Amino acid sequence: MIRQRVFAWALARFNKRYEQFAVKYKENLFADLSGVVLEIGPGTGANLRYFVQPGIRWIGVEPNRFMEPYLEKEAKRLGIQIDLHTGLAHELPVSCRQDTGFTHSFSGLCVRKCLYKGTA
Predict the structure, then answer these.
(1) Cβ–Cβ < 8 Å for 66, 42
(2) In the chain, which end has fewer C-beta atoms inside a 10 angstrom radius, N or C?
(3) Mean pLDDT calculated for residue range 50-57
């Protein structure tokens, strides 16, 4: 439990350098999004700034409950509504075989991995 709390604090405090590197890639990656976006593992909300345009409904699933205050603070700063759920993605009450209504879904960790490999 203490590790999750410390990780949330450290991510909120020290992720800025990574975001400075990734901003141009993320702007391109998220430029044309609309509809319902599901972000799996949003962390402290570093990607929320890319979802402020009208026509986007953001839903997040975060396993670390200590990220919640940072996500809420960032959403408030940006003036957007968020629909945040604490839990694991594989426990979501949706099936891959049914229409979930999501127009886009992604994992923050996958975004980071793609950016580091230069594939985004």
Answers:
(1) no
(2) N
(3) 90
| The architecture CATH gives domain 2-117 | 3-Layer(aba) Sandwich (3.40)
Please report where in the chains the tokens 């993605």 appear, as a residue. Answer: 89
Strands 35-40 and 83-86: unpaired
What residues form DSSP beta bridges with 39?
Answer: 60, 106
- According to DSSP, the residues that pair with 36 across neighbouring strands are 57
| Tokens found for residue 91 | 């426990």
Domains of the chain, residue spans: 2-117
Calpha distance 120→115 (Å, rounded): 6
Residue with tokens 């604090």: 9
Global pTM exceeds 0.85: no
Q: Per-residue pLDDT tens for 17-52?
A: 878 888 888 898 888 888 888 888 899 999 999 999
